[in-house]
Design a protein that fits this description.
About 80% of the residues lie in helices and about 0% in strands. By secondary structure, it is an all-alpha fold. The chain has one domain. Helix 2 crosses helix 4 and helix 3 packs antiparallel against helix 4.
Length: about 90
Amino acid sequence: MLLFSLLTMLVAAVLAIALGWLAGADRSALMLGMMPGGITELCLTAEALRLPVALVTAVQVLRLFLVMFLAEPLFRLWQYLSPVRE
């Protein structure tokens, strides 16, 4: 479980750096917005670090919608591609 969490944070960091470079946005705020966690806690962290809270909130909401709408199709694809079928 720890390895998965570290991998998730690494992917979020790489995506934030790439998106920050492409969009010219604050990489730290993008990185914080992409990290797994609660919107409230990460927005409070952004406020404490003096990062753009609106950007962190927007990225968190986008992440939430992506998880909500992509979880079931990805799970069904995973089940379909799984070698063991019942």
